């Protein structure tokens, strides 16, 4: 696993939790203290949790499993997409489609439809169509790409899911638990860490913190692939 120090986490802003009024009681064991009305996260606990999550990630990759990375918050979208594509893993950055896990067979028809439309477009199937008809098909492809591009090659339920924000991705977490899919997540001080299997106490609003955590996972994944 990539070595991450408390200084690295401090520089990324990982220690900043939410304001006291938003505190979730079950996060108390991960809170170091309060400064200027804001909870400060215990970064030693962050490192411990990150190590556990990384070991779990390595086990999944060792068994050729898939992890679905979910980050639909504005500040997370580009980071999650770039990371997931770099390690050839599925991702969701637009919005969580209700039923992605609980109604998987129907949801997976959308990326399959998108791929068929793209293939037909590339093969000139629509050459004889009017400009208006082709434009409508292009718009449909664009709409589908926005929704399901990240899961275009997901052929089955993933072995785990990573979410940037437990509260923001609540539906994804609920569906994962219903299907008994392990959940790894950044847990800020306003979230319930018991909703997920591998909570990583840290600032879930910080782009730099997210990049740092994902870099640790990437190193772990590359270790296994080597």
Number of domains: 2
Strand content: 5-15%
Helix content: 40-55%
List the helices and strands in order.
Answer: HEEEHEHEHHHEHEEH
Write up this protein.
With 226 residues, the chain is α/β, with parallel strands linked by helices. It folds into two domains: 6-103 and 154-225, Glucose-6-phosphate isomerase like protein, domain 1 (Rossmann fold, 3-Layer(aba) Sandwich), CATH 3.40.50.10490; 109-151. The protein contains eight helices and eight strands; from the N terminus they run H-E-E-E-H-E-H-E-H-H-H-E-H-E-E-H. A five-stranded parallel beta sheet has the order 5-4-6-7-8, sandwiched between helices. Strand 6 (160-163), helix 7 and strand 7 form a beta-alpha-beta unit.
Question: What is the gist of this entry?
Answer:
This protein has 2 domains: 6-103 and 154-225, Glucose-6-phosphate isomerase like protein, domain 1 (Rossmann fold, 3-Layer(aba) Sandwich), CATH 3.40.50.10490; 109-151.
List keywords for this structure.
8 helices; 3-stranded antiparallel sheet; 8 strands; alpha/beta; Rossmann fold; 226 residues
Write the layout of secondary structure elements.
Blueprint lengths: L5 H7 L3 E4 L11 E5 L2 E4 L1 H20 L4 E4 L6 H10 L4 E2 L11 H4 L1 H14 L8 H18 L11 E4 L6 H9 L4 E5 L10 E4 L5 H19 L1
Parallel strand pairs: 4-5, 4-6, 6-7, 7-8
Antiparallel strand pairs: 1-3, 2-3
